[in-house]
Amino acid sequence: MEDEEGPEYGKPDFVLLDQVTMEDFMRNLQLRFLKGRIYTYIGEVLVSVNPYQELPLYGPEAIARYQGRELYERPPHLYAVANAAYRAMKRRARDTCIVISGESGAGKTEASKHIMQYIAAVTNPSQRAEVERVKDVLLKSTCVLEAFGNARTNRNHNSSRFGKYMDINFDFKGDPIGGHIHSYLLEKSRVLKQHVGERNFHAFYQLLRGCDDQKLRELHLERNPALYNFTRQGAGLNMGVSDGLDSDERSHGVVKEAMRVIGFSPEEVHSVHRILAAILHLGNIEFVETEENGLAVAEEALVGHVAELTATPRDLVLRCLLARTVASGGRELIEKGHTVAEASYARDACAKAVYQRLFEWVVNRINGIMEPRGRDPRRDGKDTVIGVLDIYGFEVFPVNSFEQFCINYCNEKLQQLFIQLILKQEQEEYQREGIAWQSVDYFNNDPIVELVERPHRGILAVLDEACSTAGPITDGIFLQTLDTHHRHHPHYSSRQLCPTDKTMEFGRDFRIKHYAGNVTYCVEGFIDKNRDSLFQDFKRLLYNSSDPTLRAMWPDGQQDITEVTKRPLTAGTLFKNSMVALVENLASKEPFYVRCIKPNEDKVPKRLDQDRCRHQVEYLGLLENVRVRRAGFASRQPYPRFLLRYKMTCEYTWPNHLLGSDRAAVSALLDQHGLQGDVAFGHSKLFIRSPRTLVTLEQSRARLIPIIVLLLQKAWRGTLARWHCRRLRAVYTIMRCFRRHKVRTYLAELQRRFQAARQPPLYGRDLEWPLPPAVLQPFQDTCHVLFCRWRARQLVKNIPPSDMAQIKAKVAAMGALQGLRQDWGCQRAWAQDYLSSGADNPGASGLFAQRLKSLREKDGFGAVLFSSHVRKVNRFHKSRDRALLLTDRHLYKLEPGRQYRVMRAVPLDAVTGLSVTSGRDQLVVLHARGQDDLVVCLHRSQPPLDNRIGELVGVLAAHCQGEGRTLEVRVSDCVPLSQRGVRRLVSVEPRPEQPEPDFRCSRGKFTLLWPGR
Ligand SMILES: Nc1ncnc2c1ncn2[C@@H]1O[C@H](COP(=O)(O)OP(=O)(O)O)[C@@H](O)[C@H]1O
Ligand SMILES: [Mg+2]
Q: Is 156 annotated in the active site?
């Protein structure tokens, strides 16, 4: 702040004055004011002087400079106060309020607008549509309310003629989500009459000057305010640039647009205009006494206009103006004609009431639109509220009536609250907490408030009493009663009690010594204004209007006239109740004060009227405020709360202290920061003298918060990860157990099934294997192999060694034929050397044995693999009988007719393969290297057509296996062969009638004619 506020601008906070005297205070105020520094603090209270000129203090850049700053970091400003209230609300989730007080024209309404602008500008960074809408309505509502509730007075050209308290609701993120406006005591008598130089409410002039000709004709109006009784007084005055305001013409459009944006329907806006016009017409109605039929309306056309504009029957309007319905004893209704005076009174009462209801309807309509919707505290968190109070300031006029009385009473109440919160409570707390303290005297206005609002004897109670008494109670009698009750009250006087005082008139005036000065009130009209009565006929008339908007303003017109109703509360009591509620509401919030000062009466810039200002400073109690503040402390907090907020800034207190008491912990914390000198320790609270200390603490807290957030995040993430991990582990454990379970069940099942496997002769051949879990598939495969081996072993081990060769041959045959030949003589005993057998070769076995002997000597073979008679066919298509001998060395073709002479010998390793058919025939083609294949059919066996092909294939294949080479065995019903390069096919044809198998050739193809099937 120092760089922006040099010493030449005086002290930015009155607390910094060297001496607290009125002179010093005024000097500082004036110095700052003349240098354009209209704002000055007293601690957290802002003193504002109306500059009456545009100053370059506002707007987006200025707002940005104050946003997020502490109160004293920048020069004093409304924005700083708004920001402080906003931050207090966000930081501590506390409701706050900003109370703006000061005289009429001191700048309260302007201040409240700046505050609203600030709040609107700094909220809703995420641009949520709903929040934008709420902000829009909040900002636009001011302009509409001003049109209907403000008027030009001698003190302020845009004077608020109603009190306004606006609540703004925020969600937990600090964005506005709704609002509510309370309005207080509209000065409705202004509708009828205004002081010289003043005007009626802006709305009337805006309508007359702003709306287009067509519309004006519809409303039966002329564009001249001087033509209407209610606007004649201020007809010559327009609002203009000199006031920093829009002209009536322009305002009309602006207000209409604002109403549209807020959400008023075009019909509603039209209704509002019609109601305003009706009021103007109503004001021009005059009554005359006629000879023949008593009272009459001077200009009947006006009644028609009113009826049309209010959408009510014309004759009913006329009847309501001229007479009233009275319920006499026996529920009988009689009509009682008015006198001229009564009729005029009724007309005025009606005009006032219509305007008031219109105003209240506008406020309620705006409230309906701004109401926070669909909020559920459990889901959305608690709403917080900032209240802004802009209420009429203290008023002293040459003649003061009931309205001034109420307004000044209101100011007394607010002053009382200010005293309580700022002066009294503070001092009492210092005492309670045992802080050394020099008491500061201040003016306590409790007696004045008592004088007004005390039950039974207070001025309002006496006034109510006068209103409720039947019979002709006059204002004079009311005054006398006051005199008797308050004869000795130090703040009350009247001419009766003080005969020498010529400033008051006998039987008419009384005076109250307000905190802000003496005000003389004229009692005339007090009873009437307090009673605020309106004949029931009007209420019913307007309730029955066919205009829904107007009808909605008069719900009480529904009552039947004969219904005996309780006397409605008087205006005074209603006002008192609303004030009590307001003060209670404000007291429950954390208050921020803006004290507005009006520098001069003439609304001119750069002039500070010393006496006027001194007076205001005096009655606002600003000097006392400075004194208390200087002696006092900027902040206080209970020790536990202080620790909770700042404990992270000190190693002894984070995360929890081990010291004897919270107080000791706080002391340790402050020691570490070196802030001991700026605080005082109360019994239960810590008092901090300067805001700077608080800011130092806040700043170090703000530095640590991200670290703590990280810590919490870390811990939480860790927890989440651990949870996840534990869950995963559980999953794996379950999976493991399940797998084990499956494996166990499988193994148990396997064991159960294979119990029977040892049983001969099948050795578990037909056992079915259980379906294994996937993981055990390889295991099962291995097992299967093992089992097969074992089973084979069981089968093989009983076979005598002499049969082994035969078994091996059979196995080889089975492998070589691969199941392609159905019948291959497996069941038979394989004798192999059939030509040596007497049974098989009865005639020539001896000859064959001799030949075998000589061949063994010659070729030295080891064993005979196979021998048989065969029928062969050669490449010249010649079929012959021959014999086939297969030793472990050679394949011989022998001639049985010539003692088995060798016709051809082929080394066995030149035999590369065999081809057989799938049938029962005994055809075999022996493929030899050199493409000289041998095509034969085994025959002349015992028994005939014995099936020996399998045996030939088996022994040869087994022998080749033993030698480590493979024999190619083909099974085909049409065998290709090659004889010395000639390619042929050979197939089999069954011929049951054929005695012996034989070959036939046709077209290069051999066919074996086979006697069997
Ligand atoms: N901060 C300001 N800057 C410029 N002019 C101001 C400022 N505050 C008040 N005024 C002027 O003073 C007039 C009266 O202010 P207003 O807020 O209506 O007074 P109040 O509400 O206290 O009766 C405004 O119309 C405006 O011309
Ligand atoms: Mg105002």
A: yes
659-684 pLDDT, tens per residue?
889 999 999 999 988 888 888 888 88
Residue with CA nearest ligand 1 atom 11:
52
Q: Write b or e for each residue in 454-488: b if 16 or more Cβ atoms lie within 10 A of its Cβ, otherwise e.
A: beebbbbbbbbebbeeeeeeebebbbebbbebbee
Q: How far is the CA of 160 from the centre of ligand 2 (A)?
A: 4
pLDDT of residue 3: 46
Q: What is the DSSP track for 562-624?
A: TS--PPPPPHHHHHHHHHHHHHHHHHTSEEEEEEEE---TT--TT---HHHHHHHHHHTTHHH
Q: Compute φ and ψ for 471, nearest 5 degrees.
A: 100, 175
**DSSP alpha helix (H) spans, 67-160:** 78-92, 108-122, 129-149
The 10s digit of each residue's pLDDT in 833-873 is: 999 988 888 888 899 999 999 999 998 888 899 999 999 99
Residue of 396, 525, 350, 413 lying closest to 184 (CA atoms): 413
Residues with CB under 6 A from ligand 1: 50-55, 102, 104-110, 156-160, 243-244, 393, 596
Taking a 5 Å cut-off on Cβ, the residues next to ion ligand 2 are 108-109, 160
Residue 937: band (very low, low, confident or very high) from pLDDT cuts 50, 70, 90: very high
Catalytic residue among 105, 283, 387, 458: 105
- Looking at the DSSP assignment, which residues form a beta bridge with residue 336? 324
CA-598 nearest atom, ligand 1? 22
Measured between alpha carbons, how far is 249 from 208 in angstroms, rounded to an integer? 8
- The reply to whether omega before 943 is within 30° of 0 (cis) is yes
Strand 287-290 relative to strand 176-184: parallel, antiparallel, unpaired?
Answer: unpaired
Q: Could you confirm whether 159 is annotated as catalytic? A: yes
Cα distance between residue 44 and residue 119, in whole Å? 18
Helix (H, G, I), strand (E, B) or coil at 164: strand
Structure tokens at 792: 């084979």
* From 54, 158, 411, mutation site for ligand 1 pocket: most ligand atoms within 8 A of C-beta: 158
pTM over cut 0.70:
no
- Per the CB < 8 A criterion, the answer to whether 319 and 264 are in contact is no
Reference 280, options 342, 218, 232, 326; nearest CA is 232
